[in-house]
Fold this sequence. Notes:
By secondary structure, this protein is of the alpha/beta class. 40% of the residues lie in helices and 21% in strands.
Amino acid sequence: MNLTDLLTEQHIISHLTCRDKESVLRELVSVLVDPKTNVTEEVMFNVLTERERLGSTGIGNGVAIPHGKVKGIDRLLVSFGRSAQGVDFDSLDGKPANLFFVLLAPENSTGVHLKLLAKISKMLKEKEFRTGLMRASSGEDIFKLIKNRDREL
Length: 153
């Protein structure tokens, strides 16, 4: 599965304005709400905060990948956000996170979301890719970088 089959430019926030973990999660979920479903922004937010209580999804190197399973959605949902100033996300290395991928999976999802998490993690382990995401001038440029790297993996 390609990440860019799920992620669109509308799901990219190139300039996150928030400065704390809770606000980042809210902002990243806000672009995923679909009026065709009964799943609210609050439901998605609660799933992510519950997951964060189990342990931070801040994996280090300026990266966080908040994720969880949501009752009532029928497909994977993905958003991306970038914070120039960084946000304290209780990351493993103790440093602020700048790059965020949110992944929400249907409640009964099994392996597909794990494969996508692994793919996102692999992409973000590459310093050159992270640097490119931080330097991109727009959401469109961010999307192009992700799409090109997604094709290579």
